[in-house]
Amino acid sequence: MVTRVETAAATRRALVDAAGALLDAGGPDAVTLREVGARAGVSRSAPYRHFADKESLLAAVATEAWSEVGDALEALVAEPAARPEQALRQALLAMVEIGRTRPHLYRLMFAAPAADPTVVVRAAERTQDLFLEIVAAVVGQGAARQYGGLLLSSAHGVTHLEISGHLLEHKWQATGEQLVDLLIGLLPMD
Amino acid sequence: MVTRVETAAATRRALVDAAGALLDAGGPDAVTLREVGARAGVSRSAPYRHFADKESLLAAVATEAWSEVGDALEALVAEPAARPEQALRQALLAMVEIGRTRPHLYRLMFAAPAADPTVVVRAAERTQDLFLEIVAAVVGQGAARQYGGLLLSSAHGVTHLEISGHLLEHKWQATGEQLVDLLIGLLPMD
DNA sequence: TTGTTGAGATGACAACGTCAACTGAAACTG
DNA sequence: CAGTTTCAGTTGACGTTGTCATCTCAACAA
């Protein structure tokens, strides 16, 4: 027996998945409501039963991506972490990694704030709370707040520059990993 | 006497200016070829006499923006610069500044690489060469290449995070300026 | 059973990027 | 000078897109 709310939830899932798949495969322009609907097995304007408009659908995709990053960080925090700076390194490289494997999704996560940015920002906030914990284990509770902002910004900058083709390796002679390591080396250890 | 090449050049200028103005005023979605043409005093498909397509027009806007940043850096390099780290600070804060005043243009400058990214990248290359000089004056010629990549990435990350609404001040208790100063303070002075 | 609800389908519309065909004046050629 | 070419610009049209109004119909409530 399939209830109505069950099929509705399943459709919503299929819509978000389809949008994400199209985004990965062909970039933002490839995400059309018609194609999203087709892949989800419904028709072109069915998404309007689940999202206010196209922007809201994309916001849902971004929110899920942030949640996944949050889960990864949560795993890092949960571990014993003999070497705190190793956990920090993994956290920063996780950003570089997702940027490389899913650049369009990464861009979406940092897209221009929507009319009502609360949904995406709230998901990002949890992520940054966890990140703050990881940083505190390295530089201490007191300095974590300022260094956390710098570390997050730098890792994002490295990632975003790299997927934009602006991190010219022949000029800087540095990969994303090397820049992350260089940054961590500059930190005052607690 | 107005020659044909003169009016053509003038039209091209007007098109680029109109596109930039529309971008600043209403974001990427507000830049339609029809409106660009109208503001430039020509009609909807006139831009195709000057640019291959809409993407090429936007690439021209981005290229000009990179040139302006390059000019600003050139002025910094030309000065005597009693304190090299002050020049570096100004260079980094220039990125934060343009991001704040013209966020949509800033995003365009770091947009996804086009099919043929050579045009934009070449303009960015000059900018980064100048930036390399400024960095070398602070950390020395040898270390400039690795630290330059880090500094550029970090400043971009701070700026991009800020205009994306993801640099949560209540969490990190740090403005863009403070993060830039913090980063500079970490550098090994030559 | 009958009425209500809400997910989905369909038709339609305006706006958009883009192209083909056309126009006219400047620039060149003899 | 006349004839020809070139090319910036216009207009008409086409396919695609996001979105809305309307309709359908199965799940639920009474």
TrEMBL record, chains A, B:
<keyword id="KW-0238">DNA-binding</keyword>
<protein>
    <submittedName>
        <fullName>TetR family transcriptional regulator</fullName>
    </submittedName>
</protein>
<dbReference type="Pfam" id="PF00440">
    <property type="entry name" value="TetR_N"/>
</dbReference>
<feature type="DNA-binding region" description="H-T-H motif">
    <location>
        <begin position="32"/>
        <end position="51"/>
    </location>
</feature>
<dbReference type="GO" id="GO:0003700">
    <property type="term" value="F:DNA-binding transcription factor activity"/>
</dbReference>
<dbReference type="GO" id="GO:0000976">
    <property type="term" value="F:transcription cis-regulatory region binding"/>
</dbReference>
<keyword id="KW-0804">Transcription</keyword>
<dbReference type="InterPro" id="IPR036271">
    <property type="entry name" value="Tet_transcr_reg_TetR-rel_C_sf"/>
</dbReference>
<dbReference type="InterPro" id="IPR001647">
    <property type="entry name" value="HTH_TetR"/>
</dbReference>
<keyword id="KW-0805">Transcription regulation</keyword>
<dbReference type="InterPro" id="IPR050109">
    <property type="entry name" value="HTH-type_TetR-like_transc_reg"/>
</dbReference>
<dbReference type="InterPro" id="IPR025996">
    <property type="entry name" value="MT1864/Rv1816-like_C"/>
</dbReference>
<dbReference type="Pfam" id="PF13305">
    <property type="entry name" value="TetR_C_33"/>
</dbReference>
<feature type="domain" description="HTH tetR-type">
    <location>
        <begin position="9"/>
        <end position="69"/>
    </location>
</feature>
<dbReference type="InterPro" id="IPR009057">
    <property type="entry name" value="Homeodomain-like_sf"/>
</dbReference>
